[in-house]
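Data availability (excerpt). All sequences and predicted token strings are deposited with the supplementary files. A representative entry, LRRCT domain-containing protein, is shown inline so that the format can be inspected without opening the archive.
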Amino acid sequence: MWFTIILLQLLPHCTLSVHCPGGCVCDIRGSVKCTGDITAVPPLNPTTTFLLLLNDTQIKLLEERSFQPFHLLLRLRITHSSLDTIHPEAFYDAEQLRSIKLSSNALSVLPPKIFSDLSSLEQLQLDNNQIVSISSGLFEGLLNLTELDISKNHISQLDPDVFQNLTKLNILNLAGNRLRKLAGDIFHNLTQLKILALSSNQLETLESGLFDSLNNLLVLMLHKNQIHEMAPQIFWHMPALQKLTMSGNKLQYIPPRSFYYLPNLTHLTLYKNPLISLPDQLVGHMPRLQELYLYETNLVTVPSNLFANMTGLTGLYLNLNDNLTSLPKDLFCCLPKLNKLSIRNNNLLELHPDIFSSLPSLQILLLNKNKLWTLPEQIFRHTPRLRTLDLNNNHLRYLSGDVFLHADTLTVLSLSGNRWNCDCRILGIAEWIQENPTIVNDSEKGVACLEPYQLQGRPLQSLTHEDLHCGQTTYMPSTSVAAKVTSSPTTLTIARKDTATSGTTGTAPVSTSVLPLTSTPATTSLFSTTAEELYIIKMVDYNNQLGFYNTIVLEIGPDIVHNNHYNGWVYLWTVPSTGLFSGFMMALHIVLLVVGVVIIVASWCALYRLHEVMWTLGEVALEGHYQRIITKTYKF
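Structure token line:
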């Protein structure tokens, strides 16, 4: 019994093998696959062959009526072969064919009406050949054609009426050719078109009305062309459009309202265009748009309402824009679903405190490779779902210890490659890193001090108050004053420190007073007196001088005789009025004064003596001159 069942299963294969030529594999379902040294269409059983696949063969020519015997043949594929010539009647009497694929061959010329009798043909693929031109009547009889692929050829122009009979066409692939220009009415009869691929050509302009008849188009690919100009309102007649790619072109400007009336758009790419600016009115209502790519442009900034109509956006890629230095504070105002935001590799210098305040769903934020020098303390207070934050390779010098206070879900933070200035202002973030060691994923690699030099390379998480000498300054006299000025000084806070109470490095102020400052004068002198000393504080506004800091430490004494910069502070030093050092300095001053007086007197005496000598020499010379004159006169 089992033998009978196996025999019945093998019987059809045995029957087919009798009619299957060498180099071919014949399937019971009616498909035949041939490869190798075949130079012509092999003889096959016409009653069983529905699909013929000739791949990687030596066929160079399709002869006249090559497929006339195969009345049941529906699909023909000749690919990756040497085919370069087709007889004008090669498909004569094969009108039942539904699909012809002649991809990756050596075809350069096609007979004008070679497909005219194939009224049942639905799919025609001629891609990856060497076709130079398409005659206007080549597709004349293909009334039922739904897919046409002539991509990756050498076609440089198309006749305006080349597609006029393809009224049922759904897919048209013209990508990878050499098209420079398209007639404005070339697609007017393709009202059923769903996908149009024009990418990787050399198109320079998009004429008005080019897409007006494509009301059912879903996908339009225009990327990798040379488009530098496009007509206004060119996309307005494609309400069903879901995907539009315009990246890799030469657009510097885009007409206002270009992307209006595209409510179904889900995918839009504009990256790798030398865009200089964008109009305030560019994008219409796009509630279904999910991803937007706008990188590698020449944009300096973007309109504040650019993303206002993209309420469904989940991914936004606004990166690799070398000239982008600022972003409007309301730029991300209307993106409640945004999950990933990339604004890395720009030249951003600062961010507004409220720039992320309307992004409740944000989970991934990439800010790396900018020029941010700090971040506002409350910048992440409205991002409750933030999980990944990349801040590496910026110019960060300080961060507040409370900057991540509201980022409760943060799990990955990158901080390496910044310019951390390790003075007392760094302690807040250093302590936060110590408390959250698992969150900072690169703390051991490069989250280290850049300055001052004695702490260079020191990891932030290892810093302590003692390392930074915070609140600890050695004072020469027994009483001192510390003054600190804000970046826009309106008041000066003075703290008097008594070393008798707090030691030579005491930090507890005995008394504190706040004095008003006027912003008009560049230099302000303040006087404060106590029972023991007179405090003279000279404040200089160095806000406009980048070499200065706005913090000053004053040492009390009769006068300020020296100043220097150290660790973000400006130290003004004085000489004590009493003591051995003071006596030595006074004696040295007297000695230098006496020496100066002696030198002045000696110089005066030397000049007087030189004057007398010069006068005597002048008289002798004059007397000799007169004597010579008298002698010459007598001789005459």
